[in-house]
Amino acid sequence: MPETLRNLHLSPNILSLTWFLSLNSLVFYTCFAIDEQGQALLAWKNSLNGSTDALRSWNSLDQSPCKWYGIHCNTNGEVEKISLKGVDLQGSLPSDFQPLKSLKTLNLSSSNLTGTIPKEFGDYQELTLIDLSNNSLSGGIPQEICKLWKLQSLALNTNFLEGEILAEIGNLSNLVYLTLYDNQLSGEVPKSIGKLRKLEVFRAGGNKDLKGEVPWEIGNCTSLVKLGLAATSISGSLPSSIGMLRRVRTIAIYTSLLSGAIPEEIGNCSELQNLYLHQNPISSPIPRRIGELRKLKTLSLWQSNLVGTIPDELGSCTELTLADFAENLLTGSIPRSFGNLSRLRHLSLSDNSLLTGSIPDELGSCTELTFVELSRNLLTGSIPRSFANLSKLQQLRLSGNQLS
Fold first, then answer.
1. Is 18 a member of any domain?
2. What are the DSSP E strand ranges found in 233-369?
């Protein structure tokens, strides 16, 4: 028999050894090969330029990524949370996380990320939180994100995002937290925002090309606690529906283009603590019903072309710590009711030019005052003796009046 044929007739012992080694190789591979989730994460890691130290534990020899830095799994070994906040990743967002079917939380804020938000994010249907804030992301907000019906928190602030706030944002019916501020967004605030009945925080300030009016539908966001549209081109009047926001604590729409009357309905916002409407061409009186805001702490209305008198009713805002009405067109006198503001620390009424009368003695009862600015008005009389009670007063500015 030829030598080559004789070699094919291996002894039973050799065959058994070959089978044993093959089986052990298979078992070894099965035990130590990383699962699909880990493969997807490693592929993303390999695309990054930074984070070598922080992601050192991301090892292909592990069976699963569940013990890796920033990765959290459920009891079934499925990745539920990726939290790499503050890690210097130096790369782009992942577009192939399909194996991570149970992913609920993705926090990549302050991670030095660039590029666009992948449309594939819309495929991760279990997501409840996305935080991509404080990066250098560009492009638009992909429409696919608005398919994530379980989403509760979407933080995209402090990037370079462009385009409009999508009307489809109203489909995110479980959204509680939406921050889009400090980007390059344009267009208008969509009316569909009013569909977000669970929304507590909406901040889109710092987008200078965001224009149009505050939509009337904002009043339907009855869970809203914080509304921020400052440093935009938002114009027109505040809608009367603002009075439907019974839980709102902060309204910040300063350095914008608001005009027309501040609606009296704002008096219905019984939880309001901070109202920032300064640097707007409002050109209307201060509504008397602001005096109904018994929890109000900050009232900032400076440089807003306000006209008319300062309502006596403001003396009922006994929690007020800051009242700034400087650089307006206010007339009449300083209300004596201001003496009721026992927590007041900062009072500014300068540069109203038509503000007349004397400085009320009652201001001496505001013993928490540290700063009083009444300069450049038409005030007369003398400095009240009661000011001797203001032991915490650090600055008193009265120049440019007709005081004796």
1. no
2. 233-236, 250-252, 257-258, 274-276, 298-300, 307-309, 322-324, 329-332, 346-348, 354-358
- Maximum Cα–Cα distance for the chain, whole Å? 132
**Is 40 inside a domain boundary?**
no
What are the pLDDT tens digits along the chain (404 aa)? 454 444 445 455 544 544 444 444 444 444 457 899 999 999 999 999 976 788 999 999 999 999 999 999 999 999 999 999 999 999 999 999 999 999 999 999 999 999 999 999 999 999 999 999 999 999 999 999 999 999 999 999 999 999 999 999 999 999 999 999 999 999 999 999 999 999 999 999 999 999 999 999 999 999 999 999 999 999 999 999 999 999 999 999 999 999 999 999 999 999 999 999 999 999 999 999 999 999 999 999 999 999 999 999 999 999 999 999 999 999 999 999 999 999 999 999 999 988 999 999 999 999 999 999 999 999 999 999 999 999 999 999 999 999 98
> 47 lies in a domain?
no
Contacts of 7 (CB under 8 A, 6+ apart): none
Closest CA to 118 of 139, 91, 149: 139
Look up the domain containing 122 and give its range: 73-403
The burial class, CB within 10 Å (0-12 / 13-18 / 19+), for 198 is middle
Could you tell me if residue 168 is inside a domain? Answer: yes
Rounded to 5 degrees, φ, ψ at 126 are: -90, -5
CATH number at residue 201: 3.80.10.10
Domain count, the chain: 1
Tokens encoding 392: 């915490």
- Select from 248, 283, 298 the least CA-distant residue to 268: 248
Residue 232: name the closest of 190, 166, 184, 176 by CA.
Answer: 184
Which pTM value belongs to this model?
Answer: 0.90
